[in-house]
Design a protein that fits this description.
heterodimer, A: mainly beta, Jelly Rolls, 46% strand, B: 166 residues, 4-stranded antiparallel sheet, 13 strands, globular
Amino acid sequence: MLNSLIGIIASSGGAAATANSYESIATVSVSTATSTVTFSSIPSTYTHLQVRYIARSARTTDVGATMLTRFNSDTGNNYAYHILYGDGATPAAYNGSTTSVMRSFSVASSSSSNTQIYGVGVIDILDYANTNKYKTLRHLGGYDRNGSGELNLASGLWQSTTAISTITFTLNEATANYETNSKFALYGIKGA
Amino acid sequence: MAAGSTYTPLATQTLSSSAASVTFSSISGAYTDLVLICSTKDTRVNSGADDFQLQFNNDTASNYSMTYMQGDGSTATSSRNSNATVIAGIEPGFNDTYGTIIYNIQNYSNTTTYKTTLIRYNVVNAIVRATVGLWRNTAAITSVKVIGESGIASGSTFTLYGIAAA
C-alpha cells in the first residue's frame, strides 16, 4: 500500500514507486483527429490509476480547450469539480456541482501559428476499484505558448461507489477534436 | 490491454558538495515520459529562496518560456516568462530546509512536438507553486540540466525516472 501511495505522490511531490508497482495498462495515440478518447475494460487489479497525456485541440479560438472527464459513461448529474487556474496574469477559481461531467482547463488549442505545442497533464484517480467510496481525481495540467498559457489544478468527484472500468475524455467545445499526435497513457499502481 | 512494469529509476545524483548545476546526460529514448524528483536547496542563507532553472540538450538560446501560479498563504498570483534562455522561476528550499521539486517531462523523446514540462514544488513555509514550461524544439531530449542561480547545496538529491507507455 505504501508503494501505491508513493507512486501517486510521485507526480507532484514525493518519492517514486518501485518499478514493480507501476504498470502501463494501455495507450491511446491519436492518429486521426477524434472527439473522444476512451479507456475501457480497465481491470480492477490495481489500487490507483494515473493518466499521463499530451494533447492539442482543434479549437479555433486562441485559448486552451476545456477537457471533460467521465467515468463508466455516466452522463447523469453525478459529478462535481473545483479548479484553481492561472493564465500568467490573474489566478482564478471555478467549481461546479451536480454536473454531468468533470472539467479542467489544460489542452492547448491549435489556432496559434505553431501547431507543435501540446498541453500536458497528469491525472491521479485514487481507489478507483473500491466499491465503498465515491471516486475522486486530481488533475494537474497546462500548456505554455511563449507569451500565453494556462495552468490548472483540478479536483473531481464522481458520486458513485461503482468500480471505474471506463474513462472518457472529451472536449467542451462541440466542434473541437483531439488532434493528431495527442497521446493518452493509462497506468495502474498496485497496492501491497 | 497490454501491461508492463515501468517507472524505472535511470540515475540518481547526490551532491556531496555544493555545485552550480546538475546534469543528466545520454538519456535513453526508450521511455515515454521522464520524472525528475529533487530534494534540494540553494546555497544562500537568510536571504530567501533562489531561482533554479531548467535547460534541455545544452540549448542556451531563447527557446524557453513558462507560465506559473502560486499561493503564499495570503495571495494567489500567476505570471510568465517568454523568450527566455531557461525555464526559470523554480524556487528550491533555503536555509536549513530542503524543498521538493518534481518535474514531469512529457513525451520527451518524440520528434514531432515541442516539449512541455509540468513542475510542482514547494518552498517550505513560504510558497506552493505549479509551473508549465515550454522548450520550443522538436528534438528528443537527451540531457536535462538543473541550474542553481547561486548554487545548489550539498546534500541535494536528484533522481531521474523513465515511464514507458504500453
